[in-house]
Amino acid sequence: MDIEEHHTGFDGKYWQVHKFGGTSVADASCFTKVARIIEEQIGIDHDNIINHDVNAQQNAASTSTIDTNLAVIVSAMGGKPKVTDLLLKSVSAAASRNEQEVNESLQFIQEKHNACLEALFG
User: Fold this and answer.
1) pLDDT in tens, 3-32
2) What are the beta bridge partners of residue 19?
3) Cα separation, 34 vs 97, whole angstroms
4) Rounded distance, CA 33 to CA 42, Å?
5) Which label site among 18, 21, 46, 116 has the fewest CB atoms less than 10 Å from its CB?
6) Angle (deg, nearest 10), helices 99-121 and 28-41
7) CA–CA separation, 3 vs 50, rounded Å?
8) Could you tell me the pTM of the whole model?
9) What is the rounded CA–CA span in Å between residue 122 and residue 116?
């Protein structure tokens, strides 16, 4: 879920804060959607990027965020199983000294993140 708030902060500028987690960052396609939302907020036209229109990009970006800072917070990936649940499971397993369960949970988390990175960046 994207939660947008404005807060006055450093130098009297406003902060626009977006928090994404769970289902909204469950996989690579979700991360792409999040990136598009942020690009829109800062005035980046994805079509200009594809068409290599650097001047249009610089003009849009310089006028869209003059008095606003942007913060993007990304929490744990969702999906099945949820990364948060796997982290909690691994902590519980560690407390019980169940090394195999810890390793399995952490391995799954790593594989999930690696698959996302591979899909995004090749």
Assistant:
1) 555 556 666 778 888 999 999 999 999 999
2) 3, 73
3) 38
4) 15
5) 46
6) 50
7) 28
8) 0.70
9) 9
